[in-house]
Design brief:
177 residues; mainly alpha; elongated
Amino acid sequence: MKYQKILILLSFLIIGFIFRLSDHPANFSPILSLALVAVYFFSKRISLALLFGMMFLSDLFLGFYDWHLMAVVYGSLAIAGLLGYFLKNKLTIGRVAIVSLSGSLLFFFLTNLAVWAFSSWYSADINGLIACFVSGVPFFKNTLLGDLFFSGIFFGSIMVWEKYAVTLLSRVARSEE
């Protein structure tokens, strides 16, 4: 069963890497969902290494940007991904939705705060902060939709696999006897 989990996660990571390099709506991405899946299956260290590895490899192709903002993006994904620990004890559709929504909100808040703090795009006062968050709302819509969509696909696949894998594998074993 351990090898199936590794195969599933590697498949999801390849999908995330390819998707990140493809043409897609801004912020409609499987990355946070992949971080949640990695934390669900593996230890914190392994899941963060997989997330950062995929992000770094795809950034080699996409290009790097201001290191302050990159650090916050990577850190926000890691922190949001750690919410996947709330799914370890009981994986349900409701929990997946709540964790995905929480991760989206956390990512939105931290990355917009970083854009306001580290860029010269907005004034360094409350009006600039408000303008930054207002400007981020269209991106948040895509972030939220992407996180819910991909979490639904990935965790839905996992739920189906966990429910039916044992039955299917036992049938295959019996038919081989």
